[in-house]
Every structure is written in C-alpha cells, then in structure tokens.
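pasting input
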Amino acid sequence: MEKEEIVSRLTPVFRKVFADSTLVITDQLSALDVEKWDSLSHMLLIAEVENEFTIKFKLKDLNKMANVGDMIAIIESKL
Amino acid sequence: MNEYLIRKAEPGDIPFLADVVIASEKGMSDRLSFTTLFNKPETEARELVIQMFEEEVDGCELSLSSFIVTEFEGKPISGSGSWIEGFNGNMPSGILKSNLISYTFGKESIVYLKTKSHIVKDLQIDREPMTLQLEYFHIKDEHLGKGLDAALMDRIEQNALAEYPALKKVQCQIFKNSVFSIKILLRHGFKIVQSYRSDNGEIFDYLPYNEKLLMEKVLNIN
C-alpha cells in the first residue's frame, strides 16, 4: 500500500479519535502537538488504527512510534 | 531502620510489585481502574500487570526499573515507583503506559474503555518533562510509622539526582481521599499545586475518588 493511501485512511481515524474534523496529519505530528492526545485517547487511537488496517502492533512497534511518520512506516511494513 | 534493606527492584519482585500497584491504585477504596475501566476481573488484571512489568519498558510507572523495594527479614514489605519524565529521550510516560496496556489487555478491553473514557477524562493530568514523578508508593501496614516513608523518599530523590543532577522538581498525582499518603507527602515538603475534579456522577463506580491533586516539591540543590 502506498504511503498516500495510508495517510488518507489514517486521517479520518485521527479526526474521529481526537474529535477534530480539521486535523491534518503530517509525519512530524506527535502527542505533543494535539491537545486531546493523552494516555487515554492514545489507547483508543491504537485500537482504531489496528482495526482500520486489520493489523496488530507489537509492543516494540508501539514504543518506536514517536510521531505519525513512524506509525506510517510501521503500518507500511505490515501490509 | 537498620533492619530494613532498601534496594532496586529485581525481576523476582514482579508479583509483589503487582500487588503494590493494585493496592496503590485502589487507594482508600475498593475500585481498581484496571478492572473497572477495562472490564477484567482482579485476578486477571493482576496477571496482566505482571505481564506489563515483564516487558521491561523503561520510563513509566509500570517499569521494573522505576521501582525500589524494601526488604524486612528477607521479604519485600514496600514498593515505590519513580522515574524522570522523558529522561534520555523517552516518550511521555503516559504513552508508554498506554502502549503496554493496549498490547497486554487486548482489543476487547480497549473497546470497553472507549465506552467509559468520557467518565474519567477530567482526571487525566499531563506529566511535566524532566521532573521526577512518584507513583505507587506502598508500605505494608505493619511497617508504617517507623520512619520508612522518609527513608524511601530520601532514597528516591538521591537516586534521581545521581542520574540527573539538574533535577529541580518532584511531582506526585494523588487522589484527594488518600489522606495518609497526602500527609506523608506534606511532611516530606510537598505542596498541593493544583486540583482536578470530575463532576461526572458515575466516576465513583470506576475510580477511587472524583478529585485528584497534583503535589509538588521543589528541590533546593546548590
């Protein structure tokens, strides 16, 4: 799957989890940049992303995800 | 105090630390968020807490490396967790903890959490980077009142300062009804700096109390 397609599928997931219909995701975007991205919403985000792409992240994958770019790269590697 | 041995936690302490986490999470109540928010019985939640410790992720409250343990007559009688938030480039501890929970508790629990998250969201408090964070401070009842709390606090601060000499602040998030723990913190120089309250009436079904305090101690190191 191309990166552009991953981004286009991730965007509505992020917008839904963080209840922000204008949220634009970039490679650099991280929990520090989104006010509602806290420990609670992070768990919901992971579950929604796994659901969207029918994948299961390993713990070491999750702990490597410092930003959205890392998340995209890991999703890419699993598809 | 000579009869007590304070040391870093080891893998063999993990079952005891799971009990420390559960006792601390409950505070002065019988509500354990690992069961109420994730729809797991306490026995299973305890096993999952053990699994999270066994993953050995550093930098959060479920890291083995965050804990010191006190031994009395060869047996653990206290466990205390602390870490420097974001130290060595670590991710925010809340994210690390969420990753551990997401991975070990599984999708069904997270789907359940989704239906309850609105109830507890007002008590989510960010942790300040490069501050020492205290979490899960538990001493068995029969060893309270013997000066162990002060010795543990001193050891925690000394360990952190040895690792990061520029450390300026210690913080602790605590439910307001944990009166004995609050007394210990006040006695050790902490002050209440902020209060977070939820007016959602359901919160008492899920968490020990509807108000959390952020307590802080400024370190006066020359």
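fyi The interface with chain B takes residues 31-32, 38-44, 46-47, 50-51, 57-59, 62-63, 66 of chain A (CB under 8 Å).
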